[in-house]
Amino acid sequence: MAKPDPALLDAARYPYRLEIPTRFGDLDMNQHVNNVAMAGLFEDARVRFLHHVGLMGPESQVQPMAASFAIDYLRQAYYPQPLTFCVAVSQIGNTSHTLINLALQDDRPVALAHSVVVITAGGRPCPLPQGIDSVLRSLALRG
Predict the structure, then answer these.
(1) 79 Cβ contact list (under 8 Å, min separation 6)
(2) How far apart, in Å, are the Cα atoms of 139 and each of 9, 17, 26, 27, 71?
(3) Which among 21, 26, 106, 125 could bridge 95 via Cys, Cβ 3.0 to 4.6 Å?
């Protein structure tokens, strides 16, 4: 496996951050947060980000759908320390956008994820809602 670009491991480049607690049930038999649980934590961070930008929630007229999702596991994560998720937009298309999501524990990178989110309405891809592209641009990966 190729190592990720070291610049993507710099938490200062990500404009959106949130903390999510680990749970005892997330552990594997070696007492590490297991890969399936980590994928679920990334999903939670992505959905919270989509709520933050207004693409999900009671007022939203569209439904985001993850079309692609990949995780690079960098080191083990443990319970009970929480994980900090840093999220940034890396690309914006007509009907989709790409997110980069860095997971930290104790300020150390533990995983990096890329996801492509397609915006849908009525089960079909649709253009980004008016004004969302500027919101997404404001949350782009920094310098």
Answers:
(1) 22, 23, 24, 26, 27, 31, 33
(2) 17, 11, 29, 32, 21
(3) 125
Which tokens hold the place of 22?
């680990």
Length of the chain: 143
State pLDDT tens for residues 28-56.
899 999 999 999 999 999 999 999 999 99
Q: What residues have CB less than 8 Å from 70, skipping those under 6 apart?
A: 113, 114, 115
* DSSP per position, 62-84: SEEEEEEEEEEE-S--BSSS-EE
Cα separation, 13 vs 7, whole angstroms = 8
CA 105, CA 76: separation in Å to the nearest integer? Answer: 9
Q: Which amino acid is at 67?
A: A
| Residue 1, pLDDT score | 58
Q: Judging by beta carbons within 10 Å of its beta carbon (0-12, 13-18, 19+), is residue 95 exposed, middle or buried?
A: middle
Identify residue 55 by its one-letter amino acid code.
L
* Token pair in block for residue 73: 């596991």
State both tokens at 133: 């592209």
